[in-house]
Amino acid sequence: MTPRTSGSDMLRMAMRCFDAGIAMGVSWLAFLLMPSLAYREGIEYPLLILVGSLLLPAMGELFGLYRPWRGRSLFSMFGVYLLSWLTTIVIVSLFLVMTKSTHTFSRLWMAISAVGVAGVGLVLRGALYHYLRRLRAAGRNLKCVVVIGTPSNVERIQSHLTSMRYIGYRVQRTILVDDPQSLPGRIESLVNEATFKRDFHEIWLSLPLSQGDTVKCIAEQLIALPVDVRYFPDLTDVRLLNHRMTQVADLFSLDLNYSPLDGASRIVKNIEDRVLGGLLFVGFFPIMLLIALLVACNMGRPVLFKQHRHGLDGKRFRIYKFRTMRAHTAAPCLQQAQRSDPRITSLGHFLRRTSLDELPQLYNVLQGRMSLVGPRPHAMDHNVYYKDVIADYMQRHRVKPGMTGWAQVNGLRGETRELRDMEKRVNYDLFYINNWSLGLDLKILAMTFKRGFFNHQP
């Protein structure tokens, strides 16, 4: 049996048509349901619907929306889809402004169409994503792989794929690198057997970096096969942060540690912070004025608590919170707020439980010194202490600190009584950095409003 190589291309084409069809159908339905528009003559509306519907998959292609999502996060796909959708809206809007034709189209219709396309697109894509996961878990729509590696690595990959059947990969056969003398002959036999007909889609190599010469020899033999060959280096003993393959000075490098928020990703996150941060600041402004008045009446001035924290790349910035404690003598530098802390007022307890004391940090977000989502900034003295006892602690500062974060919505907030509490929080922060996407940010924000807004820690 020979796997059909055109299947992926057909699926990508189908998904482009799928997105274009959703955009066209939703926009046209909105047009027909608005009586003031349905009987307009001319081709302006149909033409704009056609252009926008074709532009959406074009932007999706640009941002990698149609690359394989097998085994990848649903929320990452949502983020890329929303980015493609937003770019389409911006381009269409700029075109209408430049051609001075904005008056031709109903702004209400444009808003309904835009929101409708985003909503329907996300719902249907989510449904398709979960349908494919169930299909693959049932043993259909699978990709078969040949795994070449050391016995321990092959066993690790097999165990991983068995525990995640919904990803849709199945180990078709294995070639163990246990006898260096016979290995070239076994690889040659595989190449001769599968040059034109094969029962697998990909070949995975999984060997330690110390066996680089073996990897090179295997890769040179496999170049004769027209299939994807992936190398999974055994880096289980190395702590990685967003590792990737890059080319520097015409040399290929495996970056073991780099910030994920560079280039387009940094622009996307900055837009997210400015747009959503601005909307939240305006929305919460009346509440912040009320809290400021209550704090002034209850505890006097100053209303805000200001303190320096370490931000992106360890640079200092001043963070703002509503004051929750009475005036007191400075506590030891590493002392954290505790349950029934006498320094905290009754109003302060309420503000801390509801996280309303954090609202002034929206100003830090608009300043560009914080993000809506990211590792929570710790006191500077805590950073000085923990950087020496937790090896990868300072990797938290590879991104901007956030008002909320992956650790916080998973209950890791407040006082850290033991070292392992902080280690667990750091692990969650590094997971966020290592898996950042616009979709993950939106998920964390949704979780914050759903269950992370109320804090039972001091």
UniProtKB/TrEMBL annotation:
Protein name: Undecaprenyl-phosphate glucose phosphotransferase
Record field: transmembrane: 20-39, 45-66, 78-97, 109-132, 275-296
Membrane topology, from the record: Multi-pass membrane protein
Domain Bacterial sugar transferase per the UniProt entry, residue ranges: 269-451
Cellular location(s): Membrane
Single GO MF descriptor: undecaprenyl-phosphate glucose phosphotransferase activity
EC number: 2.7.8.31
Organism: Chromohalobacter beijerinckii
Keyword NAD: no
Lineage: Bacteria, Pseudomonadati, Pseudomonadota, Gammaproteobacteria, Oceanospirillales
Keywords (A to Z) from UniProt: Membrane, Transferase, Transmembrane, Transmembrane helix
Source taxon at top rank: Bacteria
Keyword Transferase: yes
InterPro entries documented for this protein: Bact_transf, EPS_sugar_tfrase, Undecaprenyl-P_gluc_Ptfrase
Main subcellular localisation: membrane
Family: Belongs to the bacterial sugar transferase family.
